[in-house]
């Protein structure tokens, strides 16, 4: 385990990195406490980064101990490091200009967050561990080449175990589903580049002959940033539709294959299935669920230049 | 003078202080679907009891419960009030011990329990020694200061609600009321019962209208529902049942960037504790009244010292949380006695009193 501790001095802030290893997290904390001249207080711990190998073995025990611990806030962000932790933390130390809060700023909505990055908090992972109808994703980070942290998509977590990966585009769709907001995201296509200004998603669910069917209609408001050649408005719309639908289907298929209901779609069937059926949602219904996804695009404006209709 | 408003405020404070900690866990434990049903059932029992109790009290207006029972006979009064005294003692012990434990679990991890318990008892004894009027006035002040915080936290706690967890509304288990005899449900009734007995003890110079009390208690329904449903909507039933204090856990997940405190829970806990301390001093005041009637040689300060000494020493003897839970279960029987027998007997005596009255005139 490694701890990044900002060490604020008047004038400048240094970052200390403390390393210790052990079997359980509390054992490690105890060791750190023993060897340090200060007391370790985790009340203001903001981000917990797990190594990928740890996540693949299962996070349940750690997450449970975080929830149990009274000093770690349930709102702490969870993240997974793509490679070993040491290079990431070395990078954090060498690039610590903004008082050692880079990792937190990276996930914080008012600072450096962007819609392709998933925000997952400890309590959400805990909820998904015990839920019949909901799994979770955790963002994956790695040390960047020119920036401190680089996004590498998100990990699909099923019952506290990392079972797969979705890429950044798919993470955006996940955020869209979660209602986390995708404003400001830029979509690049063959003939145009647009920026999403507003999004709304309507969902309806039904059971037909023991098979779950779900309809989703996404309404996007976009503004045109750039065009290649001279595409018509209809062309731009259909390109957005195609691109998002393709991404969405790919993500859903991958998730269904892993039996991980990352979008929490089972939630929409809570009143349509009995409790015993819900218990088997992941294995019996979810993998065979049909999802009809439609995108409805409104081009709000075209910037300061006209496009031809 | 009509002091209905102050009485209503006290009534609200005592209930709200009890609702948010243990009540949701009990309800979530007692059934898995359709929790609203259990909440509303408990609440309708509560409202019926309050209505019967206030009606009975209004029939024998200037007398309080002790006078009323004594007018029947000394032995009768002793037999009726002894279980009630036992109930009040257990109630104080449980409240002090349980809330001290909650405080250490939620935010004062390094503070020894005995200091927290001593603080609770000392503050509430001080308020209670100043007399019932100042207790009521403190209630008004606490309400004005902390109620806005409470409302703020209640509104914010819906931040992570996923309304799909509300469904399904009903299943066979809930519809047949199979949960009624389950232990957690029986225990959950404490939130409905502890708070209204004081209405029969306040002296006649603080008069109130029973109808207003009953009407105002309807306003408590949202708080009961919120305390159970916010954790359910945030975590889902499976996860919510894993927390000893589900509402606190749900409030812990609230993330508000514009608030100066990182954890809204602190706000909430501190306002709740003020409510609980007032509840405690009210219970202490009732117990003192009974104690002084039973042993007339005692004066106010010595009686309260005796009371604190007893409660505190029993609290120190309670070793852990499971012992607290066992105590709560033991208190169920005196509690049901206090909740059902006292109001019904008061009502019966009130009816008799009223029938006698015109003859005498």
TrEMBL record, chain A:
Residues 9-142 form the Spore germination protein N-terminal domain. It comes from the Bacteria. It is a lipid-anchor. GO terms for biological process: spore germination. The keyword Signal applies. It is found in: Membrane. Residues 153-303 form the Spore germination GerAC-like C-terminal domain. The lineage of its organism: Bacteria, Bacillati, Bacillota, Bacilli, Bacillales. GO terms for cellular component: membrane. This is Ger(X)C family spore germination protein. PANTHER family: SPORE GERMINATION PROTEIN B3. Keywords: Germination, Lipoprotein, Membrane, Palmitate, Signal. Belongs to the GerABKC lipoprotein family. InterPro entries: GerAC_N (IPR057336), Spore_GerAC-like (IPR008844), Spore_GerAC-like_C (IPR046953), Spore_GerAC_C_sf (IPR038501).
TrEMBL record, chain B:
The chain crosses the membrane at residues 7-27, 33-54, 75-100, 112-132, 139-158, 185-202, 214-235, 266-291, 303-321, 333-350. InterPro entries: Spore_GerAB. Its main location: membrane. It is found in: Membrane. It comes from the Bacteria. One of its GO terms (cellular component) is membrane. GO terms for biological process: spore germination. It is a multi-pass membrane protein. Keywords: Germination, Membrane, Transmembrane, Transmembrane helix, Transport. Belongs to the amino acid-polyamine-organocation (APC) superfamily. Spore germination protein (SGP) (TC 2.A.3.9) family. This is Spore germination protein.
